[in-house]
Amino acid sequence: MEQAKTSSRLQRRWNFWGYLFILPNFLGFLLFMLVPIIMALVFSFTNYDVISQMDFVGINNYVGLFTDDQFITSLLNTLWFAVLTVPTGVILALLLAVLFNRQIRGISIFRTFVFIPVITSMVAVSLVWSMLYEDNAGLLNTLLGYVGLGPVHWLTDTNIAMISIAIMSVWKGLGYNMTIFLAGLQGVPGELYEAATIDGATARQKFMKITVPMIAPTTYFVTLMALIGSLQVFDQVWIMTQGGPVDATKTVAMYLYQYGFQFYKMGYACAAAYVLFILVFIVSLIQNISSKKWGDLA
Amino acid sequence: MKARKLFALVLAGALMVSSFAACGNSNSSSTASKTESKTESSKAESSSAESTPASTGGEKEKSDAKLNIWVYGWEKASADKIKEDTAAYKEETGVEVTVTPIASDSYSTKIQATIAGGNNPDLAFVDAGVQSTQLAAKGKLLGLNQFGVEEYKDKFYDSVWDTMVYKDDVYGLRITSNNLALFYNKELFEKAGLEEPKDWTWDDLREAAKKLTDPDNGIFGLDLPVYDKKGGYTWNWLPFLWQNGGELLNEDRTEAVFNSPEGVEALKFWKTMVQEDKSVPLQAAPTGVNRFTSGITAMVIDGPWNLNPFLSDPNFKDKFGVAPLPKQKTQATVVGGEGVVAFSNTKYPQEAYDYLVHLTCSDFVHTFWENWITIPPQPAEKDFYADDETYGKYLQVFSDQMEYSRTRPFTPSWPQIEDTLGIDLQGYMFNKTDDAQASLDKAVEDVNKILAEEDK
């Protein structure tokens, strides 16, 4: 009895310290995340323009969004970008991780090479790739020229521009995803592979029957993060094409930035942000439900 | 145990403090001008206090108004000059002006944010027309007609004056102006056996661009911002529309009218050069300026702000010249630049107006022309740079163009119009179907939609 009391008091005291430690972060979250998120929801039903009195306009902003060709285009572009980057990004990262998941001399050097783009600023990467993609004197077209191909209008063809940005984005995010996969792979017990080897399993079988199911939680995490990231894509588009040519690469994040901070139609921009939020929420939900199935594999 | 607790407490405290410090910072930089300007003013006070201790005591008749002004902090020299000048200004008038230089790409967003917080400065430099019209429409700017600002109208070019007019009032005065002219590469002109551009028409421009184009060496005759979408397309295309006698909006700026035959011709002219003659590079990067200095393009249409980059390139500084834009039915170029506005919530409207006039209409305004390499907005100062060895011959071309320069037809939603129009024009440029009329009709429809929303 006495014992239990002390321990609960101790527990409470420990809890106090725990709360105290998370307080700075929580306050930051409250002030800079939660409150603005709720305010944005309120703004999305107003004609808020940052400087004058706002009026509630009901769902006008949302109606306006879905009757605006530009918004529909940017929504489709964003989804197209996700389709282009997520599967390729995840699969390539997994293959690289498997390739690099072995103890050979200098392996960390190779891992570092793949990871370097991750720690490089997106602005710098975008500028460099803009030059690589340059139509006439860019490295890629010069190389293609040597083998008698091209020139490809990487960033200036409305059909190709988004693919070019996707290629660059996959390359940039590869190292991050690979590192997470490596961590997942190293958590797979070696005995499983040994047992499978004794049973005469081929490398392919081991990969499909052991590796893939065992790292399913990792795959789930990587896919979800990649998906959310791709739906919010902004920096590289802003720098490389500014959404052009002819809106071919305009994304939702760019659309709402323009309306919020260039045209000062903040209420409208908030509505766009909430459409994006709902989109991210839905895909996360689908992911979450389907992940239970993935879990069964393990 | 105690030591550990103490350590934990200190650590938690430190975390708190640092996180608060972080929010304090982000606050002051994004919204609150108060904290920044206070530190500025305390600095200014401490420096001026030493030099003028006597003057404050003796002259009680003078105004004791305190004004706060935001200025562009692009370079230190002119910001310092303004600060210096405020001391003299105080001695003369008693008005204490605090200068806050803001060096930031998000200058206009900051202004917007401070207005939202009600702690905006009394005066501010702005991108003339673009932001001033928007703020004037929301009633945030001080109308200047009540102070008799009309007396200064003749001092400025009409195009320049018009940028600060919204409905029936004037909302600021201009410190600088600029416009677009034709930069050309002398070396490439010589190689192609061309005379330097003089009294050119569209046909001359087109023919020269064709002659200069050399696909084998990757050289293009002319650069046009065909991929620029931050309103750059519109900004560069407008002079062509005007040169051909077209108009963007009607007189009241309530309706778009550029789907006229003149507009169609102007639209086609660009596309012919780009898609048919292939004398314009279809490249998103590097920028047009870089293409020009590296000799990829022989001509580029751009403003005086490029002179410093061009002249500071030792391999390029002697290779280029500046010519007026070509003419078609008439001569035209588009005018841009900076102005000063006063905000309607200032406590000292009269003093704010007086200081605004002091900055823009006294000789003090020369400071900006000297330091920013822009064009004087005042016809009387047309030859301001004439004797300048470095810039004179180039800037004079821009200055001479001022008399037929025109303002963009600003409305409160101009940034959006510029952007939407740019996308539509660009759409035509890359559209396989070649129906210029249909493209312009759609663009007119889009712009009219934006204009209709303004009245709501």
What are the SSEs and their pairings?
The complex is a heterodimer of chains A (298) and B (456).
Chain A: H1 2-43, H2 60-66, H3 69-100, H4 107-119, H5 122-132, H6 139-146, H7 161-186, H8 190-198, H9 203-214, H10 216-231, H11 235-240, H12 252-262, H13 266-297
Chain B: H1 2-30, H2 33-51, H3 53-58, E1 66-72, H4 76-93, E2 96-102, H5 107-117, E3 123-127, H6 130-137, H7 158-163, E4 165-166, E5 169-170, E6 173-174, E7 178-179, E8 181-185, H8 186-191, H9 202-212, E9 220-223, H10 232-243, H11 261-276, H12 288-293, E10 297-302, H13 307-311, E11 320-323, E12 333-336, E13 338-342, H14 349-361, H15 366-372, H16 392-401, E14 405-406, H17 414-430, H18 436-454
Parallel strand pairs in B: 1-2, 1-3, 9-10, 12-14
Antiparallel strand pairs in B: 3-13, 4-5, 6-13, 7-12, 8-10, 8-11
Helix pairs in contact in B: 10-17, 17-18
The CATH topology assignment of the largest domain in chain A is MetI-like fold
CATH homologous superfamily title of the largest domain in chain A: MetI-like
Q: What's the CATH topology label of the largest domain in chain B?
A: D-Maltodextrin-Binding Protein, domain 2
The fraction of residues in strands of chain B falls at 5-15%
**What is the CATH first-level class name of the largest domain in chain A?**
Mainly Alpha
Number of helices of chain A: 13
Distance between the termini of chain A: 43 Å
The helix content of chain A is: over 70%
Principal-axis shape of chain A:
globular
What share of residues of chain B is helical?
Answer: 40-55%
> Counting H and I runs of at least 4 residues, what is the number of helices of chain B?
18
Query: How much strand content do the residues of chain A show?
Result: under 5%
The CATH class assignment of the largest domain in chain B is Alpha Beta
The CATH superfamily label of the largest domain in chain B reads Periplasmic binding protein-like II
- Strand order in space, largest sheet of chain B: 2-1-3-13-6
Query: Biggest interface and its residues per chain?
Result: A-B, 40 and 42 residues
Q: Quaternary arrangement of the chains shown? A: heterodimer
Mean pLDDT of chain A: 88
Taking all Cα atoms into account, the compactness measure Rg of chain B is 25 Å
Tell me the major beta sheet of chain A.
none
Q: Tell me the major beta sheet of chain B.
A: 5 strands, mixed
Protein name (chain B): Sugar ABC transporter substrate-binding protein
InterPro entries (chain B): Bact_solute-bd_prot1, SBP
Region (Disordered) (chain B): 23-61
Biased composition (Low complexity) (chain B): 44-56
